[in-house]
Design a protein that fits this description.
The protein is mainly beta and 144 residues long. The protein has one domain: Jelly Rolls. The strands form two sheets. A four-stranded antiparallel beta sheet has the order 1-8-3-6, with no helix packed on it.
Length: 144
């Protein structure tokens, strides 16, 4: 995939967005979050990472996750992630697969690019404080 910056001319109206207001953790909801995901099997073999464009109404941190199949993981998957920092201007983001990390206790130690189950963008209280409210726009998701 060509990742020339001219391919990333964005419009908030056509981009996906995560509009969120994270609640205060409670016994009923111990980990408030907002997310945007694509849950379909993929084979990303031969690619080095994800590429997308993004912007936000303020500066936030959020997680980009790639989930592969792992029978030892919760729900049969393992989550590999990286932290991303947003800004007000549209920017192109490259996330190399070798930058992604797993904290799963039953990790098999390798992101299986031929067996991807989902790609998820997630805002939670591990990235921003409870009560934070905002919007993140994501567009042009691809691989390179």
């Amino acid at each position: 995939m060509d990742v020339d910056a001219e391919n990333f001319l964005n419009d908030d109206d056509s981009a996906f967005r995560i509009a969120f207001r994270l609640g205060i953790p409670s016994p009923e909801h111990p980990s408030p979050f907002a997310s945007l995901g694509s849950f379909q099997p993929r084979d990303l073999t031969g690619h080095d990472g994800l590429v997308f464009s993004m912007r936000s109404d303020d500066t936030y941190r959020f997680w980009v996750q790639v989930r592969d199949r792992n029978p030892g993981g919760p729900e049969g998957t393992e989550t590999w992630f990286a932290s991303i920092k947003t800004g007000a201007a549209w920017q192109k983001v490259l996330v190399p697969f070798d930058r992604l990390r797993s904290v799963a206790p039953m990790s098999d130690g390798a992101l299986d690019l031929d067996d991807i189950e989902a790609i998820v963008f997630l805002v939670d209280i591990g990235a921003v404080p409870p009560g934070t409210e905002g919007t993140i726009w994501i567009d042009d998701l691809g691989v390179y």
